[in-house]
Amino acid sequence: MANVDDIEITDLLLEWGQGDRAALGRLSDQVYGHLRSIAAGHLRGERSDLTLQTTDLVHEVFLRLVDQRRVTWKNRNQFFAITSKMMRRVLVDHARSRGYQKRGGDAVKETMGVLEQIPVERSPDFVALDDALETLARLDPEQAQVVEMKYFGGLSKTQIAEVTGLSTATVTRRWRLARVWLFRELSSDDEEPRGVPD
Amino acid sequence: MDAERWRQITELFDRVADVSEEDRREALQRVASKDPTLAAEVVSLFIDEAQLGEFLQDSGTSVSGAVWPGQFAAPEPGALVGRYRIERRIGEGGAGLVFLARRADREFEQEVAIKVLKPGVTGPRSIARLRTERQILAQLNHPAIAKLHDGGTTENQLPYVVMELVKGQPIDRHCDDRRTSLKQRIILMREVCAAVHYAHQNLVVHRDLKPSNILVTEDGRPKLLDFGIAKLLDPERSSPAREPTVHWLRPMTPSYASPEQIRGRPVTTATDVYALGVLLYELLTGRLPFDLSGKSLAEVERMICDQEPVRPSLVMAELMREAASSDTAATLDVLCRNRCASPKELVTSLRGDLDRIVLCALHKDPGRRYASVEQFSDDLRRHVAGLPVTVRGDSVGYRFGKFVRRNRLAAGLAATGIGLTLAWAISATVLLQRIAAERDSKEQILGYVKDVFQLADPEEAPGEQWTLQEALDRKSSTLVEELPDPAARAELLGFFGRIYLSQGQLFKSKELLDQARELWQLMPEPDEAELIATLVDFSAVLRELDDTESALRWSEEAVRLARGFAARAVADPGRQILITPLSELTSVLCYLGEFERAAEVNREVLGLTQRLLAPTDRQHIAAVTTRAYISRRRGALTAAIRDYREALRLHQLVSTGDQPLVADVLANLAAALHVEGSYDEAEEVGAAALAMRRRILPANHTAIAQSLSNLAKTFEKQGDHGDAEAALVETLDILRHHASGSHPRLISTHTSLAAVQLAANQPQRIVESLPAMLAMWRRERPRDVVRLAVAENLLGAAYLQLEQCSEARSLIPESTARLQAELGDQHQRTAQASERLTELRRVCG
To answer: How large is the ipTM?
Structure first.
């Protein structure tokens, strides 16, 4: 199953697992590239809820890129965590570039190539969500990470617990709190109430 | 908020999140004594959490229930709110609870409705909304709007509103329970309109019109309730619309929400017109325009913003059709009984005016709906009174102009019989407008169009359907030469070229389009859109004529020009111009067998159609169809069949009639089914495709030939050699009208026919006709090695069957060797030839 690329990804994953921080950057780049191309093919023509499909994508990337025989559960979940982050980047980058194109303003930052076809514009406002997550990460990085893994990566709470080392109950509470916080953050831009004198 | 405060909140939240409700309240009260704001913060988190719904929730995990802190409890029966004593709860909205209450003063025994905020929904925004509602109601005094009596603030500083108590039923239930006829429903609807119009005159938009907010009282009068999310249109204070970040967080009822509400665009009186359109739709048909149940947010958004509603009469017609075969019969029965009419009567009453009135109110573009509720209501009045209504849908000119612009080829293809005349008339009109400056040529064209109409008009030339054709033949060349202006000449040439293309007259079409193209390209500043369209059609003709290399060149040129054009377009719709050239390029690449590239281009097309067009738009459906085709050619049969079925489904949403594109999809589905080995279904679907093509296309159209030759293959797989032969003979008859005798397609069809005849043990027929053909092909197509070898091999096999060994020996070994060299040993044709070679050695030694 595994081709040359896959072996490299598996190696990087193992190296990182053994403490080689540099491996993480290279691994992330690899995953990002693969995710972009797989996402483009996978989502071609589909218009339904993208977030549901990102879950499948993250798992598909794992099955396709990682040599299953050589990795442990822990490696696997770490891989999912990275993939979640990259999925977030793929979606947000795309949404941003789409946004630039729409305004016809700034020179387009990067060619999205095949990814052009992912129909994210009708999906949640990833850019706003991304910004809000950044702000949340400054308040509590753990909460932001949980959202990233759960929402963008489709990881289960148990998987998130394994990656982060938190208990499942704590993951659940981080998620609950982060969700409320994000909801408030994202809805604060809603129509202003009109001050009507009594 | 700083990180430290958030840490404290998180900590407290962690402590109380997983404990019992009672323990939580206790813990929070303890904290409240030291740090009341911290406790309040955490309480509000739980409260807000209960409001989140599906927010970020992709797996539907439910959120554990939140607690209501005691101090915000809802009023209990017997409690006093202002001067009113609460009796019982009678309603609940997004942010409010409504109670039946009685004035506590002795002198009045008046029942009222009191609206208070829901416990937990007491944020500043909710409070402001209830105040707005109170202010709005105070301005409105109309018999069909529930009146404001009083208002005030409770002990804990929360506002409340006291209103007229309306005892009645939601309008939809009222109509059904009373078995109200369509006419009475419309009359009732007009009373609702009067109330909404009154509100609009007072600068109030309701924004949440739906049956549960429109009660009908015992005496049959409607009353509007719940201005809870109504909005004051204040011309002086209105600010430029801001795009909300997450617009689905806005309060609304999706089933009645307009595209602008869904998209978070500015809301105007047209929003209420839309909701009234939905309501009328529902009262008439018993259904909502869009079935949103179980749909994801993205899907809901797509349906409301992009999908055209099925017109009311069609809903009923569909229901009738379904009822004939399934258990929806009971539903239909109830529906009709509640309207005191038979299904047929309902369809007849809905068709025409009511369809148009409803669809106009439901237009996606607020600017194209009725300009006011009053106009909407007036058209309903006119309809009931039997007067002509003002709405005629989009004007014929508008629709056809758009249609012709969007897809010239399709417009041409759709044009048959009277359809052709219409398309012709509209195109000619468009043409006339375009070259209006050229006085002389305009008059010349006008005279010409008149001539054509006289010829095409059945009254003038009865019994001759294709007089238009004759007119074209007679006039096209002379007329074009008479035009002084090159742009006008090019446009007209292109126009005639398209008409010929639509009729399958490829050579004439090619000639004219080639001239048009050349004229445009010689001009220093050509009409780019027109040039692009001409190139696209020119490529289509070349492709049909199997000159695929040239087709590739011109379609790529068209794409290049269109990209330049699109890049200069400011708005997104400008990119629409890319759709046809890219679609044509996809087709060409398919013809060339370059499916990888074709798939790539097709993806780009789908990206555009999905973004810019409705899913029922024919160009989108065509792109889905193309994707199916490419899947098939790449061996993904299941995906192909699924896409073809999807394309058919999309089609049937908009129309049930015969259409060229539907016939194409049927034909392709049949082919895919054939490849899959489902021959019975392939035959059924293929026969349907053929029948449809025969109904809508001229007798000798090449598409009919295609259907026939495919069907022949299916027949053969089923062992029906006779049917297969008949179909191929007819195929040849048609092809001979279009191409010289040595055209590749003719050669292929002849060889197919020979193969069938061979299988049917009719070698003598092959021997009678094929040798002469073969001689001609060798002469005219010496380089078409494979086709020649296949034909020679078949002829050899025929001789072999007749045991004419010397003839067989002169053909089979050589052609087999050539097939081996050209196609390789593995190819099916080579294998077949090798078998024949073995047979030859066995029989003839």
So the answer is: 0.73
B interface test, pick of A111, A187, A188, A198 with most B CB neighbours within 10 Å: A187
Give A-chain residues touching B249 at CB under 8 angstroms: 183, 186-187, 190
Task: Name the 3-class secondary structure at B553.
Answer: helix
Does residue B776 contact residue B741 with C-beta atoms inside 8 Å? yes
Q: B82-90, long-range: CB within 8 Å, 24+ apart, which pairs?
A: B82/B150, B82/B152, B82/B154, B82/B160, B82/B162, B83/B150, B84/B112, B84/B114, B84/B150, B84/B162, B86/B114
The answer, for A107 touching chain B at a CB cutoff of 8 Å, is: no
Which residues in chain A are contacts of B18 at CB distance < 8 A? Answer: 169, 173
Burial B98-127 (b: 16+ CB within 10 A, else e): bbbbbbeeeeeeeebbbbbbbbbbbbebbb
Contact A139 B3 (CB under 8 A): yes
Mean pLDDT by 10 residues, chain B (845 residues): 84 88 81 79 76 55 23 67 84 74 73 78 64 76 86 73 87 92 93 90 81 90 80 44 34 75 75 94 92 71 83 85 76 87 86 88 86 88 80 42 35 36 45 44 48 42 41 55 68 74 72 89 84 91 82 94 83 77 90 87 92 81 85 83 88 70 81 86 92 82 83 89 92 79 79 91 92 88 84 95 93 93 84 92 88
Q: How many Å apart are CA B301 and CA B295, to the nearest integer?
A: 9
C-beta of residue B701 within 8 angstroms of C-beta of residue B693: yes
Nearest to A117 among B51, B246, B603 (CB): B603
Q: Tell me the C-alpha to C-alpha distance, in Å, between residue B21 and each of B25, B50, B152, B750.
A: 6, 14, 32, 84
- Residues near B821 by beta carbon (within 8 Å), at least 6 away in sequence: none
Residue in chain A closest to B600 (alpha carbons) equals A114
Q: Inter-chain contact A45–B13, Cβ cutoff 8 Å? A: no
Instruction: Decide if A196 and B297 are in contact by the 8 Å CB cutoff.
Output: no
Would you name the residues of B annotated as active-site residues? Answer: 208
- Is the CB of A143 less than 8 angstroms away from the CB of B296? no
